[in-house]
Amino acid sequence: MRTLKPRERILYAGTCQGTPVTERYPAARDAGFTAVTLFASDIVAARSLGLGCDDLKTMIADAGLTLSNVEIVGNWMPGQSADTPLLPREMAVAMLDGTAERVCRTAADLGSAAVTVADLFGLPFDAPEVAKHFAKVCDVAADHGLDVTLEFVPTGCVRTVAQAQEVLERADRTNAGMLVDSYHFFRAGSSLEDMARVPPELISSWQMNDAAATPATDDAFADMMIRAMPGDGAFDLKGLMQALAATGTTAPAGIEVFSAELSALPFPELARRSAEGLDYCLALSGVDA
C-alpha cells in the first residue's frame, strides 16, 4: 500500500487568522512546517503595520520557510456579484477585489510559487465556460512566473473533485493543478473513487481538516468557519488519505482549520497541533482498510 509522502508541509493561512503575520513564522518552522500561505487580507493587515511585500518576503525566508500560495483570485468568472447571499458583503467585495492581475502581481512580488483560484459566488457549473476563464487566469499567472491552484468549493462554480479535473483537462495549462480541501471534498459530496482516479500531475496540493458529519448551520459560509483538527470530527479522512495515496501524488500537504476556539490558542501550540494533525492524516494513508 502506498503511503503519502508530500514534498512540502504547509501551514495554511486559514489556520493562522487569530495571529498577526509578525508572530507566525518561527513557530511554524519549529513545528516542522516548511511552507506557508498568505491571504490577501494578511497582506492588507501587514501594510497597516508598515510592512510591504519585501518585509513579508524577508520574514518568511528568515524563518527558513517558503511561500507556497497567495490566496485567492476570487474575481475571474462573469456573473459574480457582491449581492450574493452566500457570502457576507464585506467578504464578497474583498473577493471581487481579487482579480488575476492584482493577485498575481502581488504574489510575484512576495516570491510565491503559486496563486489559489476559487469561486464562492454559487455560479452554475458550465465546464467549457469555466475552463475558458480559468485558462485566462493561468495565462496571467504564467506571465508572472506563477503556478495556479484551483480549489473546488461546494458554493462555487467548481464544486467537486470530478468537476475540477474536467476544468483542468479542458483548460490544458501546464502551470495548473487542483487543491484538495477535505472540508470542501466532503461537504460537496465528492467521491473517493473520483479522487483515486485523478492523475497525480493534476494535484497541486492538499489541505486537511475535520468537521461534523452534517453542517452546523444552514449558512454555508458560517459552517466553513466551524472546523476541527483532523481526528476531531466525523469526516472519512482515512478513505480520503488512501484515495490520495492511490493517485501516487507527492504534492505539498498541510492543515487549514478555521476555528475560533483553536485561534484562541497560543500560536506555538496551534502550530504544534497542526503538525500533529498532518502527521495523523499521513499515518492514515498507510493503514490497511
From TrEMBL:
Protein name according to UniProt: TIM barrel protein
PANTHER family according to UniProt: BLL3656 PROTEIN, HYDROXYPYRUVATE ISOMERASE
Source organism of the structure: Tsuneonella aeria
InterPro entries: IolE/XylAMocC-like, Xyl_isomerase-like_sf, Xyl_isomerase-like_TIM-brl
Organism domain of life: Bacteria
Stretches assigned to the Xylose isomerase-like TIM barrel domain: 27-278
